[in-house]
Amino acid sequence: MRTSRPDLVLTLLVAASLAGCGGAGAETAGGGDIAVVDSVLPMPVMLDRFRAGILEPTRLASGADSRDGLVRDVVRALETADTASLARLTVGLAEWAWLYFPTSVQAHPPYELPPGLAWFQLEEGNRRAVLRALDRLGGSALEYHEHTCPRDPAAEGDNRVWTGCLVRVTRPGGEPSDLRLFSAILERDGRFAILSWTNDF
């Protein structure tokens, strides 16, 4: 699939977010709480309301079995403008709600961000970042060399979050350059997926 249409990219990213949510009730559960931000409620109550109707996944299914494999897949999907693969490489709604958010810094003091608001901010930021990356890199041959993550991952419960990663690629007619194609990778039980697509573009 090769396209850079914004509406299709958004549709695919949302579809990935809803993967494994359990059909009926999933959109209401994930979307309904976004408009109702009640930070007065205890976090367990907010979490229960947000996750209502969203089936709990047993593992991180998005992404790849290694960090290098994930980054290689990211580069390949960007150069071919393969939006379906970009969605598949991204942490989905059910994974975020059950596996990531409860132990993230956003769910605990001093932040305690309502999950509906936190998910909306992440999803909207990812949508914009993917569109920018596709606009700059989509359809261009990219030679992948390596990637580096200079910092140790942040430990959050069973999760590890990698940030600060740079990807060395060569574009047609250019020299190798280090690019920030994303800003965070989620690692859990030997699986790696893109958590945040914030990038240099």
Strand content: 15-25%
> Quick check: average pLDDT?
85
- Report on the biggest sheet: 4 strands, antiparallel
What gap, in angstroms, lies between the N and C termini? 22 Å
Characterization of this structure:
This protein is of the alpha+beta class and 201 residues long. It has one domain. 39% of the residues lie in helices and 16% in strands. It has seven helices and seven strands; from the N terminus they run H-H-H-H-H-H-H-E-E-E-E-E-E-E. The protein has helices at residues 6-18, 26-32, 43-51, 67-79, 83-88, 93-100, 115-137, and strands at residues 143-148, 154-156, 159-163, 166-170, 177-179, 184-188, 191-196. Strands 2-3-6-7 form a four-stranded antiparallel beta sheet. A hairpin with a 2-residue loop joins strand 6 (184-188) and strand 7. Helix 1 crosses helix 7 (115-137). The longest helix is centred in the middle third of the chain and has 23 residues, at 115-137. The two termini are 22 Å apart. The model is unreliable at 1-36 (pLDDT under 50).
Which terms summarize this structure?
three-stranded antiparallel β-sheet; 7 strands; elongated; disordered N terminus
Quick structural gist:
The protein has 201 residues and is α+β, with helices and mostly antiparallel strands.
Secondary-structure topology with pairs:
Layout: H1 6-18, H2 26-32, H3 43-51, H4 67-79, H5 83-88, H6 93-100, H7 115-137, E1 143-148, E2 154-156, E3 159-163, E4 166-170, E5 177-179, E6 184-188, E7 191-196
Antiparallel strand pairs: 1-4, 2-3, 3-6, 4-5, 6-7
